[in-house]
Amino acid sequence: AKTEVTVNSGAVTVTGAGDEANATGVNADAHEGGSVDVKTGTVTAISYYGQSTGINATTSGGGTVTVNTGTVNSSTRSESKGVYVENTGGSIVVTTGAVVSNSSSNNGRAYGASISGRSGTTTVNTGSISVDSERYAEGIHASSFASQDNHETLVNITTGSIQAIGGENNKGVVVSAQGSMGTSSLDLTVNGSVNTSGTGVDVSAGNSNVAEITVTQDINAGNTAVLLFKDSDQASLKLEVDGTISGKEHNIVIEESSTTEGIDITVWKVDTSDGKEVIAQKDNVGYFIPENAAEIVNYIIKVEGN
User: Fold this and answer.
1) 11, 112, 227, 256: most buried, per Cβ within 10 A?
2) The pTM of the whole model exceeds 0.70
């Protein structure tokens, strides 16, 4: 069965009907071979103390979901998600304009796009992403998880610039490629900069899975600009930053129990002002320079035309 919903050049606004009521702008679910196709303009979800979600897209059992919208707005005093995607076996394609997600409470959380691929193929394309929460916010939270033998899980994401402001724990990007059954890969391209009051980009990869992240401009962070973790030499973790990496406290940090083999960073420039190191690794005492640091970080050579 196929369901198609089109709101030509229109807007969808949903407001929770009570203080605790949740609000979802677009809900697109397809399961057991079903198909859902939604096209609309601006999407706005507003709740007071309940959860607010601009777009909710889920599929399983070979279902297909396609969502095309304009700008997505989500706001609440509780948990706000601009775009929520969960794929446990099928195909999901979500395309939006800019995404704005805000939580105005000291106890709230805000996510620009929360994406989980546990099987099948998941594709999300957005404009710029802006999240704001005093407690916790993430511009992108995405995972690719290998959950079935002899199956491949693919997650592909493209966004505009990402801004996560408010609290010192906020993160611009959090992505992981994990799982031991089958293989998983996650590919994220940020067409612009990542700016955050906390951590800029947090990436992890495990087993034989692949995480590849490209930022076409700068990463600027109030704490650590880049945080990396890889629990297996067979995993692949690649980060390309075509601008400058700059963290107020640290630039590039590898987690304490992470292997450094198979980590590949390519960058135009790293901000080493105030004595900051280019790259460091945590241990139970503090930070140290990995022995193979020179092999991990590569620099882009830019040649200006006449």
Assistant:
1) 112
2) yes
